[in-house]
Amino acid sequence: MDSIISISALSKTYASGFTALKGVDLDIRRGEIFALLGPNGAGKTTLISVVCGLVNATAGSVRVDGNDIVRDYRAARAQIGLVPQELTTEAFETVWNTVCFSRGLFGKPPDPAYLERLLKALSLWSRKDSRMLTLSGGMKRRVLIAKALSHEPKVLFLDEPTAGVDVELRRDMWQLVRRLRDEGVTVILTTHYIEEAEEMADRIGVIAKGELILVEDKAVLMDKLGGKQLTLQLVAPITEIPPALDRYGLTLGKGGSTLVYRYETGRNGESGDSAIAGLLQDLAGAGIACADLHTTQRSLEDIFVSLVNEPALAGENGSEARAAAEGAR
Length: 329
Hints:
Layout: E1 3-13, E2 19-29, E3 33-37, H1 44-51, E4 59-64, E5 67-68, H2 73-78, E6 80-83, H3 95-105, H4 112-121, H5 137-149, E7 155-159, H6 167-182, E8 186-190, H7 194-200, E9 203-208, E10 211-217, H8 218-225, E11 228-234, E12 251-253, E13 258-263, H9 272-285, E14 290-297, H10 300-308, H11 314-328
Parallel strand pairs: 3-8, 3-9, 6-7, 7-8
Antiparallel strand pairs: 1-2, 1-4, 4-5, 9-10, 11-13, 11-14, 12-13
Helix pairs in contact: 3-5
InterPro entries: AAA+_ATPase, ABC_transporter-like_ATP-bd, ABC_transporter-like_CS, ABC_transporter_ATP-binding, P-loop_NTPase
Keywords: ATP-binding, Cell membrane, Membrane, Nucleotide-binding, Transport
Domain ABC transporter: 5-234
């Protein structure tokens, strides 16, 4: 599958000295849903801002559908729709005028039928004549999506699109995203709701401290790193794990009444699944009886936390946000 966005050796250092991106290389495939994950201050907003032409890169290049974002700015930007985190709209304009104006900014001819379909898909048609100041936060978020799609872009960026919105809007939004993907639109999203990325994305990218540390198909990532955990409930508590069981790396918990066995899947060599039979035999040989057992799968959130391996710093997030705002000005 060919790439619609090609990012090469992209770096950004702001005038303050804050380095938000460090040599990022990334190809985003045409027609996929790509989730970009990272802690606060990791560089997600800066990366999106550079691709969308809101911030100038210090080094490197970006091409959108073959168009360089510097040399062919108009052609590149016309392919992109952006839904920002902030609810920025003209308070006294109507929904209809707001969306029509956004389409006109890209030199697109009027197409009332397309905009009507778009507003109906976002459950906004009944509010098309309402002024923006009368809308709820969730409705304003829908209008931002309509604005981003008004000029029929090939690429849609969703920067934390469901932060603070209700369950109904979140459901409607993901239905729309799936439909857009089916129609050939490439969707790039950042989200703090990692379960959404796990459900929606075709590929996952993880960025930390300005560096892209992983890009992988979601299914492959879950197979490689989505380890399992087997919890064994013991008939009688034990005070220590017998040395004969050391090779399993078991953890004793809950007052000695449980044993936890963690193992990875999708790796070369003996799999954890096949080792379970041997574990159960060795437990019986050690005189340890199990009353019950259950298995859980490591989630994408667990994988993300283990990759990043440190909490985000609020100050870092503020630095990136302030620096990005300065660059946009």
